[in-house]
Design a protein that fits this description.
The complex is a heterodimer of chains A (134) and B (305).
Chain A: H1 15-29, H2 41-48, H3 52-64, E1 68-71, E2 75-78, H4 83-108, H5 113-127
Antiparallel strand pairs in A: 1-2
Chain B: E1 9-18, E2 21-31, E3 36-40, H1 47-54, E4 62-67, E5 80-83, H2 95-105, H3 111-121, H4 134-146, E6 152-156, H5 164-179, E7 183-187, H6 191-197, E8 200-205, E9 208-214, H7 215-221, E10 223-228, E11 245-251, E12 254-259, H8 263-271, E13 277-282, H9 285-293
Parallel strand pairs in B: 3-7, 3-8, 5-6, 6-7
Antiparallel strand pairs in B: 1-2, 1-4, 8-9, 10-12, 10-13, 11-12
Classes of the chains: A mainly alpha (134), B alpha/beta (305).
Chain lengths: 134, 305
């Protein structure tokens, strides 16, 4: 298993958060299926050329959040228990983080709530034209 | 004492003076097992002095250095691999002779491992050290350092003179060693290498430890709060002495506060000055380094974030 994750060490976003975000994104997209094995801490650290403790911390947090399960000696796996709920939560997390960044950026342009809402609706109309359900 | 409880590399209240010059002042640094600590600092900040004393090439003026809870002895090098800043290799000996020397000296020397590393870095073992390029010289030192599969690695600029592929190979070796439980202290002028490989970073300036923390926690706490004002920047109302702020830079109608913790709180406080908008910018390790070392006004927000 190689290079399904990518991180940017130069980013100001802590690396363990980037790893968490990547795993959640793949779980949300289904490219990591319930029950599927994740790379070992060592393998992923070497694959991304990042610190092993950083990967271990990301895995611990993912386990705490119920996204993955770790069994000693066997490795880490995408949770299969209540997996659809987890995948949905992972999708929500990733979506929240993307929209959070976008809204922060437009707010930084000096737009107020009504202006942001108008912009958001204009974009919604573009991606979800009226009459379409999904 | 239990080996897992002993601190692998412990520097306690270490001071080194050369004449009247204090190269390192009261440095205390414990490196935990399995950690990779990146030591950063401008030239002359005391990094190499620290490495020299850790390796027994010089003696501390005061304070102590302990490896696995004990002072350094020749036997320590059975499990300690090192790359010094100035070569410890003999110019008149070939690479092969150095390997043979280490084979005879260390029980832990692993000839198969050495052969793999020679292959990886394409070291010409037949050449005398004096005839090697800077990069090949470093590569031979790396081969020797890792060929005993050491559980402690002390590496002063271990990638200097290497091309990018070999630099990455050195990082891979460091990361692999740490994943197997080794403890690593290394320095590099390339902050990107520390940013990738290290979990812990210590920054020295003028012989003093000015930043010590995990790379992720530093990135989580060190931020720039940037405010843009409509007209003039108003009276800062005591902001300059706020302990959360290490530095304030003003340019035109833009105010930038370099924050060491609680950026949200600082943003709220600056918001009371009624700026047009306030944003919190993330910093790379390089930004954090330059900001800490401080004599360059070039610290800039990271990209477009």
């Amino acid at each position: 298993m190689s290079a399904i994750f990518t991180v940017d060490p130069r980013s100001g976003v802590p690396l363990y958060l980037q790893v968490i975000e990547q795993v959640k994104r793949h779980v949300a997209l289904g490219s990591l299926a319930p029950g599927e094995q994740l790379p070992t801490v060592k393998a992923l650290a070497l694959d991304l050329t990042i610190n092993p403790n950083t990967v271990a911390r990301a895995y611990r947090d993912l386990e705490r959040d119920g996204v993955i399960e770790t069994s000693p000696g066997r490795g880490s796996f995408v949770s299969s228990n209540g997996s659809s709920a987890n995948a949905h939560r992972a999708i929500d997390d990733v979506a929240d983080s993307i929209l959070n960044n976008a809204i922060r950026e437009v707010k930084n342009l000096g737009l107020d709530r009504a202006q942001v809402t108008a912009t958001f609706e204009r974009q919604l109309d573009r991606w979800f034209p009226i009459g379409e359900q999904k | 004492m239990n080996a897992t409880q002993t601190i692998p590399v412990a520097i306690t209240d270490f001071t080194k003076r050369y004449g009247a010059q204090e190269a390192v002042s009261n440095l205390t640094l414990d490196i935990e097992r399995g950690s990779i600590c990146g030591l950063l600092g401008p030239n002359g900040s005391g990094k190499t002095t620290t490495f020299k004393c850790l390796l027994g090439f010089a003696r501390p003026t005061s304070g102590s250095m302990a490896i696995e809870g004990a002072p350094l002895t020749p036997a320590t090098f059975e499990y300690l691999g090192y790359v010094p800043e100035r070569s410890a290799l003999y110019e008149w000996m070939t690479g092969a002779q150095h390997l043979e020397f280490n084979r005879r000296t260390f029980k832990s020397y692993d000839p198969k491992r050495a052969a793999e590393l020679v292959d990886l870095f394409k070291v010409d073992l037949k050449k005398r050290v004096g005839k090697l390029s800077k990069g090949q010289h470093t590569a031979l030192a790396i081969v020797l350092a890792f060929s005993t599969r050491p559980r402690i690695l002390i590496l002063d600029e271990p990638a200097s003179g290497l091309d990018p592929m070999f630099q990455r190979a050195v990082l891979d070796l460091i990361i692999e060693a740490a994943a197997n439980g080794a403890t690593v202290v290394f320095s590099s002028h390339q902050i990107g290498q520390v940013e990738r490989a290290a979990d812990r970073v210590a920054i020295l300036k003028n012989g003093k430890l000015i930043v010590d923390g995990t790379v992720d926690s530093l990135k989580g706490s060190e931020k720039i709060v940037e405010a843009i004002f409509d007209h003039m920047i108003p009276d800062l109302n005591g902001l300059a002495v706020d302990p959360r702020i290490s530095r304030i830079v003003r340019s035109g109608r833009i105010l930038r506060a370099y924050v060491n913790h609680d950026s949200e709180g600082v943003a709220r406080r600056i918001n009371e000055l009624a700026p047009k908008n306030v944003s919190i910018l993330d910093l790379s390790l390089e930004d954090i380094f330059i900001n800490a070392v401080g004599d360059v006004a070039a610290a800039s927000p990271n990209g477009d974030r």
